[in-house]
Amino acid sequence: QKKELAVFINCFLDTLPETERNVFLCRYWYVDPVKDIADTFGFSVGKVNSMLFRTREKLRRALEKEGY
């Protein structure tokens, strides 16, 4: 089950636009602070927070659709 979930999440990440995927990975894989992510990508903190929220919602809906 864990391996299936990992494969699913990787496939989900592959569907995201590159910048959205990189912001998500910086925050939740590398645990970078939102401020650092904003500085790296040249975005405001608010934009990064919005991107992360929208990506989490997409992931939540995709997980629910697959029965997770």
Supply the key terms.
mainly alpha; 79% helix; 68 residues
Topology:
Elements: H1 2-15, H2 18-28, H3 34-41, H4 45-65
Describe this structure in words.
The protein is mainly α and about 70 residues long. It is built from four helices and no strands. It has helices at about 1-15, 20-30, 35-40, 45-65. The N and C termini lie close together (about 10 Å).
**Structural class, from helix and strand content?**
mainly alpha
Largest sheet: none
- Which stretches are poorly predicted, pLDDT < 50 over at least 5 residues? none
Q: What characteristic shape results from the CA principal axes? A: elongated
Mean pLDDT across all residues, rounded? 97
The helical percent reads over 70%
Instruction: Give the DSSP E fraction (strand runs of 2 or more residues).
Output: under 5%
How far is the first residue's CA from the last residue's CA? 10 Å
How many individual helices?
A: 4
Radius of gyration: 13 Å
Encode the helix/strand succession as letters. Answer: HHHH
Q: Let me know the number of strands.
A: 0
Entry summary:
The protein is mainly alpha-helical and 68 residues long.
